[in-house]
């Protein structure tokens, strides 16, 4: 009888269920384990999340590290200004009006005889407080309204879109001149409320577009098919995947709000004396720019560095969170 050619399929079929299981088990024992990657990264080929990839890129970005150090220093100065500046920013001596740098006053004195260094340090508290609180308010309000409009759509989405169009048509500085000119309070809350009132439409549109994109993914459809509620889908599935653009825009907007507070204070409708603000100091030093340029240089420089640090930090975060740039 001639020999039949060996066929693996026929051989496995001939062994029966037990033989097939034994063969699979013997083959499984010959598989080599996946090679381990560097310490802390797990096996080679293990996928990383968007956030872990972004954090890895940010740690290697010198611009991000430099801006982060500047911002950490500003936060420290805002919380404990007396740690690096002695005396009160409201203590002035007209006898030293427009004097240059000297002992105890490395930045000199302004037109009222106030220590420019002390006022510049204490002015960081106001600027950072206004920027952070305004950004939080804008991000929360805009994300909630835009996210709900993008998820449910329909009439709610149409109404919100028309409302945002109205707010976009209002010039920010002109709106501040009109609204804040009738406010008599000397605290930061009217300025923060104004920024939230006119700033939420931008975040709302970003959040709306992100939610519309995220809700079309298969994992959202699967969660809806399994009976998940709208609240659970929004909080557990859509929000974590739609929040990245909001974080990027909010980070950049923080520097913009700091500049806006200084602009409104310079024009006399934001914070008012005796509050300490970079905008107030720039406004007070402008008439003495020829005789005492140092009084204008230092608060202006501090404002420019702060705004630039937040904007460049936002650009670095955007580059790290954008998959298209990888």
Task: Give an overview of the whole structure.
The chain has one domain: MetI-like fold, CATH 1.10.3720.10. The chain has 326 residues and is mostly helical. The longest helix is centred in the middle third of the chain and has 37 residues, at 116-152. Mean pLDDT is 83; it is low at 1-44. The protein contains eleven helices and no strands. α2 (50-59) packs across α11 (293-321) and α5 (154-168) crosses α7 (189-214).
> Which spans of ≥5 residues are poorly predicted at pLDDT below 50?
1-44
Major sheet attributes: none
> DSSP strand (E) fraction?
under 5%
Q: Helical proportion?
A: 55-70%
Regarding CATH, which class?
Mainly Alpha
**Overall CATH architecture:** Orthogonal Bundle
The overall pLDDT, averaged over residues, is 83
* Distance between the amino and carboxyl termini: 65 Å
- Helix and strand string, N-terminal first? HHHHHHHHHHH
> Over the alpha carbons, how many angstroms does the gyration radius reach?
30 Å
The CATH homologous superfamily is named MetI-like
Compute the number of structural domains: 1
Q: Quote the CATH topology.
A: MetI-like fold
Structure classification:
mainly alpha
> Outline, from the CA principal axes?
elongated
Number of DSSP-assigned strands: 0
How many individual helices? 11
Protein name: Peptide ABC transporter permease
Organism: Streptomyces monashensis
Keywords: Cell membrane, Membrane, Transmembrane, Transmembrane helix, Transport
Membrane topology: Multi-pass membrane protein
